[in-house]
Design a protein that fits this description.
This protein has about 100 residues and is an all-alpha fold. The chain contains one helix and no strands. The longest helix has about 100 residues, at about 5-95. The relative contact order is 0.04.
Length: about 100
């Protein structure tokens, strides 16, 4: 009869240990799932940032192109003004000379 309390204690210990093992395994599975969800969110965030970066780079390139075109037009305008000033001075010289 001394065997029964010993056996009952051993069985209880095995059941308790099995419950602890199951709980630990469940916690590990939950942690792995959480890590996978975090990785998925990080990938989504990175894709969104990549898309924004691409759009931003395109906008900067377009702006730079417009600025180059504007500078070119300003240079052409300045050249036209210099030519107009030269022609005006020549006309004034012709008029004064007569």
């Amino acid at each position: 009869m001394a065997f029964i309390p010993l056996a009952a204690g051993t069985i209880f210990q095995m059941i308790t240990q099995h419950g602890v093992d199951a709980a630990q395994q469940a916690m590990i599975s939950m942690d792995e799932t959480h890590q996978l969800m975090l990785q998925a969110r990080e990938l989504q965030h990175q894709e969104a940032m990549d898309d924004r970066s691409e759009v931003f780079n395109e906008a900067v390139q377009e702006r730079s192109e417009r600025m180059r075109e504007r500078e070119l037009l300003m240079d052409l305008d300045m050249s036209d003004r210099k030519i107009d000033d030269k022609i005006t001075k020549e006309w004034l010289g012709l008029i004064r000379g007569q």
